DNA sequence: GTTCTGCTGGTCATGTTGTCCAGTGAAAAC
DNA sequence: GTTTTCACTGGACAACATGACCAGCAGAAC
């Protein structure tokens, strides 16, 4: 579904100050509350907004180390590996990607030493042929959506 | 900061049904509202909960293609490249990683064809020596936090 | 010209929030 | 062993936000 400038501004507002709620958002956007309400409903039912889950910081939970692991999978072992990785709490995210049947996963750990334990657990299944890990040092651009929303909303400008 | 089982269950509840609010959460947890309130305040001020931003689906915005690009950076060009990538809306996330001064970024695009445009824009700066891209096909484990929360909360069990 | 569609500005009952408070129990400090 | 400290309970309160309405109005589409 496409979004217009009003949707875009609403999303920006909610992204920057999630606490404000529909009423305050409508005030800031200069529209009636019903309008903001129906726009928000449309964004939710249209799947643009999946939800308002809490944004949890793994570092504050005691897992300050993040890493990305690229996994090479043996032919046909994909499903087993997926299930295995889904069972590891430190695997925050898993993608299958183009290339030689590869997967990319995001890991966290309590320390660099602990990362070894996590990796051992990750690769502790037969289907994985090879794993290469890159430890994250800095995160100059944390996961963000506003610039994309702005671009999506501003296409078809006058 | 550490979290105990009550914090953990509170986080789980909020992660699974963000709409419920403090009052309903306290009811389900079987504790007084004040308790849930103060736990939530502590989690927020302790940085465990960064916020409650809307979870926006890039696909629903018209960007169904996700890719990860590994970038090799020329010595000393890091800051310039960071700034360049921060200016590209389709770059949702950027990490600097161990390895030969590399970076890893998450990209989205309108189509596989459009991805070419995005990549051209990403690598359209001098500091990048080489880029290799992996297109995401499936996402068996979407970004998740509950299993980790459960583990963090359950350490020191009786 | 008529029909749609979306926005406005308004109402209403209901539920939630933030912020208090005094009382209680249990663990920690002395 | 006694005192202090702390977190939780259960209750209260005013202020506010929410979801659900509605009639009226404007511009766009037909």
From TrEMBL, chains A, B:
Protein's UniProt keywords contain DNA-binding: yes
Gene Ontology cellular component annotations, sorted alphabetically: cytosol
Name of this chain's protein: AsnC family transcriptional regulator
Pfam families named in the record: AsnC_trans_reg, HTH_24
SMART domains noted in UniProt: HTH_ASNC
Keyword Cytoplasm tagged: no
Domain HTH asnC-type: 3-64
Cross-referenced InterPro entries: AsnC-type_HTH_dom, Dimeric_a/b-barrel, Tscrpt_reg_AsnC-like, Tscrpt_reg_AsnC/Lrp_C, WH-like_DNA-bd_sf, WH_DNA-bd_sf
A GO term, aspect molecular function: sequence-specific DNA binding
Keywords tagged on the record: DNA-binding, Transcription, Transcription regulation
A Gene Ontology biological process term: response to amino acid
């Amino acid at each position: 579904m496409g979004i217009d400038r009003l949707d875009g501004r609403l999303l920006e507002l909610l992204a920057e100050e999630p606490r404000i709620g529909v009423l305050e958002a409508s005030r800031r956007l200069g529209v009636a509350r019903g309008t903001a309400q129906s726009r928000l409903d449309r964004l939710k039912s249209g799947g643009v907004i999946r939800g308002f889950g809490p944004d949890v910081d793994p570092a504050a939970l005691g897992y300050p180390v993040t890493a990305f692991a690229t996994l090479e999978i043996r032919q046909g072992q994909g499903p087993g590996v997926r299930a295995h990785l889904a069972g590891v709490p430190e695997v925050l995210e898993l993608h299958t990607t183009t290339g030689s049947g590869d997967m990319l996963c995001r890991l966290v750990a309590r320390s660099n030493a602990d990362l070894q334990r996590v990796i051992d657990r990750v690769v502790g299944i037969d289907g994985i042929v090879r794993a290469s890990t890159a430890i994250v040092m800095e995160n100059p651009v944390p996961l963000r959506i506003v610039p994309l929303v702005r671009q999506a909303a501003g296409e078809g400008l006058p």
